[in-house]
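Provenance and format

Records in this collection were gathered into a single text stream. Each protein contributes a sequence line and a token line. The two records reproduced below are adjacent in the stream.
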Amino acid sequence: MLTYTIRRLILAVPTLLFIALVIFLLLELAPGDPMAEMPLTIPPEVKEKMREALGLGQPWYVRFYLWLYQFFVVEPQYWIDGLFGTNFADGAQRIISFQSRSPVFNTIAERIPQTLWVVGMSYVVGVLIALPIGIISAVRQYSWFDNFGTFVSMVGFSVPTFFTGVLLIVIFSVNLGWFPSIYDTTLKVDDWPSFVKQLKQMAMPVFVLALYNAAQISRFMRASMLDNLGQDYVRTARAKGMTEKVVVLKHVLRNSLIPVVTVIALGVPQVFGGAIITEQVFKVNGLGQLLIIAIHGNDVPMVLTLTFIFAVLIVVFNLIADILYGVLDPRIRYD
């Protein structure tokens, strides 16, 4: 397993470099100019100097190499300097946002807590809800619980998150006034009232994303459980006198989790991308909203860095899913 992991990590390097190149070229060919939103009163020669200051006067391959060097060398050196008080970076140029003129990773670090609070919590809640629903629906196939779970899953999977979010705002914010419609990112949780306020403002965005995630995972869990419940080893276990609880939880569940692990693992980076719309609806000052703002402002360094981070998450969680295969199923070996 260790050899397989090392081999996959080595192969991930050229894969990520190719992904970075594709993203950079797409942004390079996309229409738009970072200087387009500047006031018309600025003289052309001043605009040209500003373009030179942003590095836009250099060839694309020079800018791409510079970004790679800053992402993989300069930024880690700044992190190490911040942690241990060293001077490895020594004033090296970091990745700078065209819009804010501040380091990209500083802005991302400011937005991550909001994204983790909302998106991370919603995914955990969605998984915790989906697994038992899928298991019970499979064990009690065609019961009222199974039919109700199927109905809720189809609604959660079919209805887009922006519609669900707006509907919840109309019902629970406008009409009932139970929850705030706008997420307050400046709120600091330091006592019980502030904690309750944080829970209230998280309730709707977390529910919207959790419903969407739970709808997918519960259907995969149910299908996988039904497939294994009809296998010969299940009938053999029952014939040996094992209780239904032992058969389901010890034998069927472990085998059923193998395909579901892929869905759960690969869903983590997709949630960060899928939360873009939800963050816009509830005004959550997270990575999704940051990406939208950067795209509108033609902020190439910010868009490139964020999308590449999403790509890294996809590659990493692909590897995690494959490793978990071997943990859940002893028959799977990567020798």
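Adjacent record:
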Amino acid sequence: MLKVPDGAPLSFAANGFLLVESVFTAEEMAACKTAAKELVESTSGPSGVHVWMCDNIPVRFASVSRDLRMAAILRPLIGPRIEFLSAKPVFKSPSVHFASPWHQDQAYWGGATKWSAWIALEDATTENGCLRVIPGSHRRKRDHASVRDARGFTNRVSDDELEGETIIDVEMKQGDVLVFHDRLLHSSHPNRSGRERWSFIPTYRNADVPDTSTVWNTSKPMDTPGRHSPTQPKEK
């Protein structure tokens, strides 16, 4: 059974993120990576990002997003009624290797608070492009510059504005999960490894809080009748 770290809500409230180790198995994550490569690698374009809304996501990845282990992590942070909104497989490779700029996700979608879970489909290191975060930065909204970027990162906070901030590199093992607030300032290292690095990122909100965001037209309740294995997904 998954054990959520003691004091997780307090840690999340202070830092804006929570790292939970060994949530999924290596077999589950390898199966997800193989499926993601087959489904989206050729269509993700220069960003290395592909978005599935909750009503058109493949069953395997819907199962990961709404897995009971994810619910066990999220409920102490969000509350008992959670809505799953969308998810995206994200990869870096020898050709898609850039560092993502500093930003808060809320700058892209607005509305009520959202929570995202960065799931490591394989090990993430400073060498292959792991995330960087600024603890406590979720406490206030930052101004973002609007820039033209063919890779899709059109809202960003410049490095100059972050002088003196504490920055943490979030290296993760395959199957680890990093949950973070949508105002947490984060970026990523470039991929200097010459190899792939895949992750999967579902996003959620509190169903009891009104949300003015127009990004999502549909949502799904987090509650599921039982655990659906990401390795052997339940058929529709």
